Every structure is written in C-alpha cells, then in structure tokens.
Amino acid sequence: MYFLQKILDNATALTILLAFVGYLATFGSARMLARRKDKLEMVNRRLDEFYGPLYVASQAGNIAYRSLLQKQGKTQSFPILDSEMKEWMLWMTTIFMPLNDVREKVIIEKAYLIVEEQMPRCLLDFVTHVVGYKAVLKKWSEGDYSERRSTIGWPPEFDAYVTRSYAALKAEQTRLLHSFTWRLYRRIFHRRKNGLES
C-alpha cells in the first residue's frame, strides 16, 4: 500500500510539473509569435506608408531624369541652356515636382515610420531641396526665369538611403514571413479563424 501511495504522489507531482512546463512553453511560444507578428506589422507599415512610396517615386524620378538627359544628349542637367529651358520647365512641372511632392509629403507626414532613432540628414536635405524648387516654380509662374534650379542641391545620399532602407525592410519582411514558427502560427490561427467563420 505504501509503495502504491508513493507512486501516486510522484505521478501527481510529475503531472503538475509537466502541466507547468507545458504552460511555460505555450506562454513563451505565444509571446514570441506575438512579438514576431508585431514586428512584421511594423515592417509592413514602413514599407506600405514610407519606404515603399519613397522608393517607387525615387526610381520613377531617376528613370525620368535619365530619359531627359538622354533626350538632350547630356550626362548631367547642369547647366540648363536657354534652348533647353522650355523642355526643362515642362519636365520639372509635370514630372519631377509631382514626384518630389509625393516624397516630401511622405517624409513630413510619416516621419514616425523611419527606421533610425534620428531623422536622417539626407531626408531633411531632400525636403529643403524641394522647398527651394517651389520658390523657383513660383518665379516661373510669374514669368521670372532668372533661376533655373533650386539653390539647394540634390542630396546625393538620398537615393542610396532610400534604396538601402527599402531593400533591408523587404529582406526583413521575407525573413519574418518565411520563418518556420511564423508559418506554423499562421497555419494554426488561420485554421481556427476559418473554422470559426464557417
């Protein structure tokens, strides 16, 4: 009888211990998956609302700029000759400034989505460059063509920053989407969700 009681006591203790270990494993796993889900949501938001629009507008602007230079048979836009002024104004007002306005708006309104703790200097320089062009375009609208370019130059590191940040976030997104634990989490919870909706 004593022997049987000892086995039952040990079995009870072992059952409690295994239940506790199982709870800890479930809690730790759920917490890890929740953190991964939150991280993926932030990466997606940064791509959708900040770096994605900046990247697309920058790529389109670069393609358009190279196309204009090729059309003019030049390797750089400066200096803008009198014979090129009409074409330059057309491209500035219909292509470059609308793309600049998109990027400026994204930077100003979605600055909280930047990856870094501090605003990168190239983003501030870009906004300043655009503001300079707004003054030039205002003069053009009043018939004053004495200025042809913004007095604040294009920040050379802007495109590299946007491309690098976009690529890093896409890589992070892919890593988060394709990890084993994330796929398992999605399979379990989508199955449950789909089962509840049926």
Concise description?
With 198 residues, the protein is mainly alpha-helical.
Query: Whole-number radius of gyration?
Result: 29 Å
Total count of helical runs of at least 4 residues = 5
Enumerate the spans where pLDDT stays under 50 for 5 or more consecutive residues. Answer: none
Helices and strands: which structural class?
A: mainly alpha
**Which sequence of SSEs, written as H and E, runs from N to C?**
HHHHH
Strand content: under 5%
Mean of pLDDT: 87
What is the subunit organization of this protein?
single chain
Total strands: 0
Proportion of helical residues:
over 70%
What is the overall shape? rod-shaped
Distance between the termini: 53 Å
- As for the number of domains, it is 1
Largest sheet: none
Note down, in words, how this protein is organized.
- It is a single chain.
- The chain is mostly helical.
- The protein has one domain.
- The chain is 79% helix and 0% strand.
- The protein contains 5 helices and no strands.
- It has helices at residues 2-72, 85-109, 121-141, 157-177, 180-197.
- α1 runs antiparallel to α2, α1 (2-72) packs antiparallel against α4 (157-177) and α2 (85-109) crosses α3.
- The chain is rod-shaped, with a radius of gyration of 29 Å.
